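User: quick one, sequence for these tokens?
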């Protein structure tokens, strides 16, 4: 990747085991089947597997082939690709900054001062590196589109851009002192902020009554099958039922009963010390804890040193649920959804009322999961749904070469998930979900990010961001390119998709490839609608959302610097003549990724989280590659949430 400081390379190259992925056997048996069917030579050539898929008559019948007709239903004039210090949006639209890193959130918070970033101030201010966004209308239960609560994940911190004197590069993150480390911990977690649109302009309410900061030290409850398990117990929590904080909250989701879910992703990066000096070396290795922390936290906070607290890392890697309308609510780690590097967890309601949560494990050669609640949700009694996420079945995806997707249950006692293989109970299966999925024969994917159902057509879209390490021998139909630098999007078609009764809970579905990213004509195997313009191609899909018309909006993370293209937001039809015709709508400032695309209920605003602006090679606090959005001397770049509105007040995308 020619983006050495990007989230992808900085964060994942920091840990050698992460760099190649932690899956010890990433070659799916499926590649053998392809080799047998299409010939090894065909399998080895980039794009051949894609072509093979496109040739399946069944795929054609299901509308999996991008249409050639056009035009797109999206009416905005396409933005031109750029790589610049500032951001840009399509003509006819306006960018409004809603809140920036360090802005006051809670009562008593000081104003942001780039020279005084302290733990105490940061605990009351907006956190760093905003990622997932969700909008909850005020009052609760309304569909108000001009007033609500914005829930924001703060995934990680850029030590070298937060504090002076840190230099640049990987080592800068391990130069923070005890106070700076605590400030970083306070800059993690989430913010809940009250936001309002007044005279067409979005702003937030400092010290709003619902405003909240959740940090790496907020008290949380552990629930579900792994609560109280031996490995969940620590010196500070002998019962294994309570934990401080949530880490590396990347994407998220929500529930039909109005709570938020936040995914704990690269939690491994915070733990230091030698795993060989604990009883858990093998499992730590499988999750990327290999003795080389990405931060200095473990030197200043004992629980992140595995030699001092061997079990703390088991208490991260979960999905956390909380009620955004109640600032006193205690967040709950829902262990039934499994422990892995959750990008997020998005829901779809299945035909019988059970709720299905899709979640990707974002690492090279990891898997796609879904959780199905045991019972239907109750739309008439919010309290009845309170613990719905504690009881259900976790499944992992196996993508067959014939277009069939099989969901394999991670249930203790079934198949290989027995005591003979080291799983004493369901808690063990969930804590070691990755190893359980290995044994079931799940398909290793090219870094699954968002997995999200389109409410209009019932199909589920899997963002596979990239995988530079996949070799020709490891290619399979669902991950058809070796050295996949640009990623692709898999489209899952559950039974009943397109009708009013979609069976998201079914254990089988069909799948195909929606787009294969990269620049057409340059990057082998790139595949879009034939009319996609030179501005419309994209790289590294990460987050997505859908508008009321069922069109997909794709945010990217990791566009290669060499292509002269920053990360951006692209939109495409998912059906009809413009299917898979991606168009560039917004482009981020240099170094930033675009996260958290989130529409208001009227689709007249889209919120975006602009994460790690200025995260370029050589960028420092003193000499950052951009000072977006303030552009004031001495002020470093500030991750911010922006709102994009149409100047004529219409719906986004037309
Ligand atoms: Fe934090 Fe999967 O991106
Ligand atoms: Ca991110
Ligand atoms: Ca992400
Ligand atoms: Ca990403």
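Assistant:
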């Amino acid at each position: 990747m020619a983006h050495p400081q990007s989230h992808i390379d900085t964060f994942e190259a920091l840990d050698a085991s992460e760099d190649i992925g932690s899956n010890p056997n990433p070659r799916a048996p499926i590649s053998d089947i392809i080799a047998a069917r299409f010939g090894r030579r065909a399998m080895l050539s980039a794009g051949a597997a894609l072509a093979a898929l496109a040739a399946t008559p069944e795929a054609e019948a299901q509308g999996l082939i991008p249409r050639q007709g056009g035009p797109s239903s999206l009416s905005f004039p396409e933005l031109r690709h750029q790589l610049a210090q500032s951001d840009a949006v399509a003509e006819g639209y306006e960018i409004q900054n809603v809140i920036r890193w360090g802005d006051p959130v809670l009562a008593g918070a000081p104003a942001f001062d780039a020279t005084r970033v302290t733990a105490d101030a940061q605990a009351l201010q907006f956190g760093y590196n905003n990622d997932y966004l969700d909008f909850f209308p005020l009052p609760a239960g309304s569909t108000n589109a001009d007033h609500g609560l914005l829930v924001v994940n703060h995934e990680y911190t850029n030590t070298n851009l937060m504090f002076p004197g840190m230099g640049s590069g990987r080592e800068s993150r391990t130069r923070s002192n005890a106070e700076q480390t605590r400030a970083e911990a306070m800059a993690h977690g989430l913010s809940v902020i009250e936001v309002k649109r007044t005279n067409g302009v979005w702003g937030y309410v400092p010290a709003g009554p619902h405003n909240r900061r959740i940090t790496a030290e907020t008290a949380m409850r552990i629930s579900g099958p792994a609560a109280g398990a031996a490995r969940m117990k620590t010196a500070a929590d002998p019962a294994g039922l309570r934990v401080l904080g949530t880490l590396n909250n990347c994407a998220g989701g929500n529930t039909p009963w109005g709570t938020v879910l936040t995914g704990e992703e690269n939690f491994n990066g915070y733990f230091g010390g030698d795993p060989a000096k604990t009883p858990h070396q093998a499992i730590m290795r499988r999750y990327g804890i290999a003795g080389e922390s990405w931060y200095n936290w473990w030197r200043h906070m004992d629980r992140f040193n595995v030699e001092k607290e061997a079990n703390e890392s088991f208490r991260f890697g979960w999905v956390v649920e909380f009620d955004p309308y109640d600032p006193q609510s205690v967040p709950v780690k829902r262990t039934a959804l499994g422990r892995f590097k959750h990008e997020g967890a998005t829901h779809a309601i299945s035909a019988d009322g059970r709720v299905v949560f899709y979640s990707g494990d974002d690492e090279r050669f990891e898997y796609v999961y879904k959780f199905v609640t045991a019972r239907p949700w109750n739309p008439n009694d919010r309290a009845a749904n309170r613990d719905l996420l504690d009881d259900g079945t976790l499944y992992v995806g196996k993508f067959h070469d014939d277009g069939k997707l099989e969901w394999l249950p991670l249930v203790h006692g079934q198949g290989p998930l027995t005591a003979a293989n080291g799983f004493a109970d369901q808690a063990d299966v969930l804590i070691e979900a990755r190893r359980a999925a290995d044994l079931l024969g799940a398909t290793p994917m090219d870094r699954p990010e968002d997995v999200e159902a389109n409410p209009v057509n019932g199909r589920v879209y899997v963002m596979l961001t990239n995988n530079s390490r996949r070799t020709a021998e490891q290619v399979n139909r669902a991950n058809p390119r070796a050295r996949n630098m640009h990623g692709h999007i898999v489209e899952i078609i559950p039974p009943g998709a397109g009708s009013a009764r979609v069976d998201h809970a079914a254990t089988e579905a069909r799948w195909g490839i929606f787009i294969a990213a990269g620049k057409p004509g340059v990057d082998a195997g790139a595949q879009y609608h034939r009319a996609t313009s030179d501005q419309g191609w994209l790289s590294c899909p990460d987050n997505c959302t859908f508008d009321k018309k069922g069109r997909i909006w794709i945010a990217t993370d990791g566009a290669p610097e060499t292509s002269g293209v920053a990360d951006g937001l692209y939109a495409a039809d998912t059906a009809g003549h413009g299917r898979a015709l991606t168009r560039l709508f917004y482009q981020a400032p240099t170094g930033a990724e675009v996260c958290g695309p989130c529409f208001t209920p009227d689709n007249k605003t889209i919120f975006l989280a602009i994460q790690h602006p200025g995260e370029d090679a050589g960028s420092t606090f003193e000499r950052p590659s951009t000072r977006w959005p303030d552009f004031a001397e001495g002020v470093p770049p500030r991750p911010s949430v922006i709102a994009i509105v149409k100047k004529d007040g219409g719906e986004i995308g037309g």
